[in-house]
Design brief:
Layout: E1 11-12, H1 19-28, H2 31-40, H3 59-63, E2 68-69
Antiparallel strand pairs: 1-2
Helix pairs in contact: 1-2
Amino acid sequence: MNCTRCEGTGFLNLEQVPDSVRIPFDLTGNHDLILDWIAGRASYEAGCYCSAISRPPCTWCEDQHDVQVCDCCGDGYDWHGVPGEHSEGGDCQ
């Protein structure tokens, strides 16, 4: 049975992924495309202050996202079974 939380994609907040990555994922179902995109986002210790100085979004802002492996059919990092399908071990409500 497809997971309703992630609409069967295996990921939450997939709309935050740019079309250049999401469209090939939609066409192929290759979850590695999204996992690689997540891994490629920079991790910064400090926050951004570009809004305070009225500048356009900086690289730090552009790298921020909430995309993750679904915590219903997975644990936020990996899936309990088939991505996007309900399985034992999931925490679906």
